[in-house]
Amino acid sequence: MIDERWVFHKDVKAEDQGNGVVRRVLAYSKDLMCVENTFEKGAVGALHHHPHTQITYIVSGKFEFEIDGVKKVVEAGDTMLKMNDVVHGCVCLEAGILLDIFNPMREDFV
Questions:
Q1: Looking at residue 75, what is its pLDDT?
Q2: Among residues 88, 14, 16, which one has the least CA distance to residue 53?
Q3: Which end of the chain is more exposed for a tag (fewer CB within 10 A), N or C?
Q4: Separation of alpha carbons 22 and 12, rounded Å
Q5: CATH code 2.60.120.10 for 34-102
Q6: SS (H, E, C) the chain
């Protein structure tokens, strides 16, 4: 819930997004949101864009990301900055977890 000071992973409902992707909306305020996405190998985050600035941190796994037409392989410890309205997406090469930070929060996720 918005503005919750403490958010425990065990209490956050996992939302199946289909095709091997599970989303958990973690802590957020109107200005900032933290979201965990778990990907199975082969799962695709389809190319898309949105009016939010986004930073993605690779917690685990390996992914091929495309950002603004450029493709690179990223793995645990890597980060990516996606400015608002930049087209981006990914393919999961090795099962893993992405941590996404959005500014402002994604109202469409709650």
A1: 98
A2: 88
A3: N
A4: 12
A5: yes
A6: CCCCCCCCHHHCCCEEEECCEEEEEEEECCCCEEEEEEECCCCEEEEECCCCEEEEEEEEEEEEEEECCEEEEEECCCEEEECCCCCEEEEEEEEEEEEEEEECCCHHHC
- pLDDT tens profile 46-78: 999 999 999 999 999 999 999 999 999 999 999
Q: Which two tokens stand for residue 40?
A: 């199975």
Statement: the pTM of the whole predicted model exceeds 0.90 = yes
Q: How many CB atoms lie within 10 A of CB 81?
A: 11
Query: In one letter, which amino acid is 93?
Result: L
Give yes or no for a contact between 89 and 48, defined as CB atoms under 8 angstroms apart. yes
- The tokens describing 50, both together, are 């949105």
What's the CA gap between 101 and 86, in Å, rounded? 15
